[in-house]
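Complex 410.
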Amino acid sequence: MTATDPLRFHVPAPSARPGEPPDFSYVAVPAAGAVRRPAIDAMATDIRDLADTMIRVLDDEARAIGPWSPPTSPDDLRRGLRAMMKTRAYDDRMQRAQRQGKTSFYMRCTGEEAIAVGHALELGPRDMYFPTYRQQGWLIARDWPLVDMMCQIFSNEKDRLHGRQMPVMYSARAAGFVSISGNLGTQYVQAVGWAMASAIKGDTCIASGVVGEGTTAEADFHYALTFAAAYRAPVILNVVNNQWAISSSQAVAGGESATFAARAIGHGIAALRVDGNDNLAVLAATRWARERALANHGPTLIEWVTYRAGAHSTSDDPSKYRPADEWKSWPLGDPIERLASHLIGTGSLSELQQSELQAEVEAEVMSAAREAESYGTLLDGRVAGFKSIFEDVFKEMPPHLMRQREQAGL
Ligand SMILES: Cc1ncc(C[n+]2csc(CCOP(=O)(O)OP(=O)(O)O)c2C)c(N)n1
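Predicted structure with thiamine diphosphate bound:
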């Protein structure tokens, strides 16, 4: 056969560029409650349809409906709401601190709070989380001290990591939060390896690893899936699809051809695709995947569909590559508003209590910031000195590092 037309090279493009109206027509949003909830021992091959739809619990009136509606108490939901609100207040404060020159860098998670918070509240205390830089909500949901997190951001004298990690790259063993690895995709192989070790030891705790949709293009993502499937590792593989990987749209990572949840199908891994701005759906899907892993039915890949409302980081300017008001048109709304509306609708929260809660979390964040700043920030130069860069890396310092230390006069 001879080709008649010249070949065309396809370059994936975002649905809208700056100045154009936002266009989310590519995001199909099924009705809340419409997706079936299979048994936790379902064969991955029997639930492939769940990779192509979207599990949603909260409907347009913020009522919880359908088989995924999780049995949770109003107290637990209020706790989740508080953690989400505190996360947003924390992000606002730390972003401002960066603009004031108190730290070099910050990354916020606005619009994605429901995912890390719900996950933190649903996983067990001995389960292990392998996060990226946008899961500060996990630490906040687990009541990790804000002052400790802020000292890491300021790299000051109370920073337990001595300024050796970039700001926001926390490490909190007691919260089940593994030191963040800046090399994207490595979280997945680490999580799968940890989960395999848990099974080898006959332990009873699971791992959960996180990547963004952009990072599914990394080889590590695929290595991790291969091992997770072959050894039925007790692991949850989270793909936070927030539509953007810095300035690359989800289309560049392959989102035009298939969902990110569907990446699991070729490996025979169970996949769920979930409304990531619906805190109740997050709780329900996390619980399903955790119970499945604990019962030795293997890994689950969950695509959380969400939207990165803020810039990628304080070094990024999204007005260069996407419509300024795109978030306002995001069809899955704001996770905090949706959970608050649900609690108000069920009589578990009043509007007055919601505003009191807002004032309370802001005051808590402000007082933590004052304390953390008193231990030093970039502005006053009381930051971790570079003298310690040679320490705590090797048990015994290799000769080349000794030579370098001498050359640096330390
Ligand atoms: C291996 C590797 N490649 C590139 C980078 C630089 N980088 C940092 S964040 C980022 C975008 C990641 O996007 P995504 O995975 O979608 O996560 P998101 O930031 O949207 O949460 C890139 C390319 C990196 N840190 N590690």
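Residues 45-309+330-379 form a domain with the Rossmann fold fold (CATH 3.40.50.970).
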